[in-house]
Design goal:
12 helices; alpha+beta; four-stranded antiparallel beta sheet; single chain; Ribosomal Protein S5, domain 2; 325 residues
């Protein structure tokens, strides 16, 4: 058996500029500042006695031909890696599997590719994993998503990620010392709501041409927030997140709703300096900046699950291979 551990991600600023509809039509391309989070999706691969395939996630599938798999990410990762028979695959998550705003689908794809390539005896780079995950999700399956999630999951760490008009991507690591202070100054608050991002992202992509000014401003915020994080001006980061949230709400319908707005207002009343809903919108986690003592106040006054923003610095990692080969 082998086990691969792959992190989900938290985006500070610039989300939406990683959509092709924006970065291919902008002189400066797209830019996101994000960190991988120490919350993971684990993918295990084990050899079966026969040539059938057993897949376990929120459902269980037993098939003789990988083409019959309903889980399209697994099916296409098997096709790409050439590992198409005689395996048992499981996925296990630290967080809810869908609708969190943490890029979990892309984390699954990166983890699957890493595990299956390793099973086949190949070493793969973070860049290859991210590129292949983008190919599966965007090109093969036609999902209306951007590229930030795949790169954050593959590389790990606190980064600026640039999306160039020629479809190339540059990952620029920020000062690693800044990462150690994030957990005590930021946290994620669970809204209790989940949603599928595709409908919001499809609308956002269609709206891009008419929202270029807002997206250009959001890209500029991705540059600004990097400097604020590296200098430790976290209260200013909170205010900037609040500004980002106001811009984000204009990009498509359904990004927020009364329940999310009510929770956000409560978080501000408890002392957060600012925050934003993560991901496409409609549910998932809210990222907030928390001065000293505020995370404890949130936990004491709200029933919502609270997760400190502790970064993952390693990206997709092989943590067990006991096949004896």
């Amino acid at each position: 058996m082998l086990i691969v551990r792959t992190p989900v991600r938290v985006s500070f600023c610039g989300g939406g500029t990683d959509l092709p509809a924006f970065y291919k039509n902008s002189d400066e391309g797209g830019l996101v500042t994000s960190t991988a989070l120490d919350a993971y999706i684990y993918v295990t691969v084990n050899k079966r006695f026969d040539n059938s395939i057993r897949l376990s996630y929120s459902q269980t599938e037993n098939v003789d031909d990988f083409e019959d798999l309903k889980h399209e990410l697994v099916r296409e990762a098997m096709r790409l890696t050439g590992v198409t028979s005689g395996v048992e695959i499981t996925t296990i998550a630290d967080i809810p599997g869908q609708g969190t705003g943490l890029g979990s689908s892309s984390t699954v794809t990166v983890g699957l590719l890493h595990a299956l390539h390793t099973y086949a005896g190949r070493e793969v780079s973070s860049q290859q994993l991210a590129e292949e995950a983008c190919k599966i999700e965007i090109e093969v399956l036609g999902q209306p998503i951007g590229k930030q999630d795949q790169y954050a999951a593959a590389y790990g760490g606190l980064n600026q990620i640039r999306f160039n008009s020629d479809d190339s991507v540059d990952v620029i690591a920020l000062d690693s010392t800044a990462s150690s202070n994030l957990g005590s100054n930021f946290c994620l608050v669970w809204t209790g709501l989940t949603r599928k991002a595709s409908s919001i992202l499809e609308q956002q992509s269609r709206n891009t041409a008419s929202k270029m000014e807002q997206l250009e401003a959001m890209r500029a915020q991705a540059t600004q927030v990097s400097s604020l994080i590296e200098t430790g001006d976290f209260s200013a980061v909170g205010e900037l997140l609040g500004n980002t949230w106001e811009l984000k709400r204009t990009l498509a319908d359904g990004i927020s709703n009364p329940e999310i707005d009510e929770l956000y207002d409560k978080l501000m009343q408890l002392g957060c300096t600012g925050g934003k809903l993560l991901g496409a919108g409609g549910g998932g986690f809210i990222l907030v900046q928390t001065p000293a003592g505020v995370q404890q106040k949130i936990s004491a006054n709200l029933p919502n699950k609270v997760i400190p923003l502790n970064p993952d610095l390693h990206g997709s990692t092989l943590i067990l291979d006991d096949r004896g080969e």
